[in-house]
Amino acid sequence: MKSVKKRFKQWLIHVDQAARELDLLVNGLSQFQDMTDCVRRILVICEKLRECAAQIDKLEFAERMRFDPLIDELDGMVDNDVMSSLEARLCDLSAEGEAGVLLGELLDKIEKQHAALLCLIQQAGGLLAEEGAAGDV
Question: How many Cβ atoms sit within 10 Å of the Cβ of residue 36?
């Protein structure tokens, strides 16, 4: 079985990739600035976590990373309801006809990508807690 450190690094790659895909959808669109800011912060956190992970020995990795404030910040982003505020804003802007359909389709794509990103972020706690529980036995 792969070490927690290797699985964590793989998880970071997936989070980074999902965040970059979401960034491609929302970047440069003024109505999506809150989402862009959130995604950019996630990308910065991923980079900092990669740097941190490189400096920690795999034997103490789970214990040290479990209490890292960056993990807590990522966790907090799951609770940040940026998607709901975006939906409310776009609902106010939605136009009739084809423009409204286009806006709805774009919002659906963004919502699916955002949900996938949040799901990945939630996996970090489980990954680190799993090793901690195994180490406590």
Answer: 18
Query: What's the confidence (pLDDT) of residue 23?
Result: 95
Task: Give every CB contact of residue 120 below 8 A, 6+ residues apart in sequence.
Answer: 11, 14, 15, 18
Give the span between the Cα atoms of 81 and 62, in whole angstroms: 28
**How far is residue 108's CA from residue 116's CA, in Å, rounded to a whole number?**
12
pLDDT, tens only, 22-76: 999 999 888 889 999 999 999 999 999 999 999 999 899 988 998 899 999 998 8
Q: CA 125 to CA 122: how far, in whole Å?
A: 6
pLDDT at 13: 96
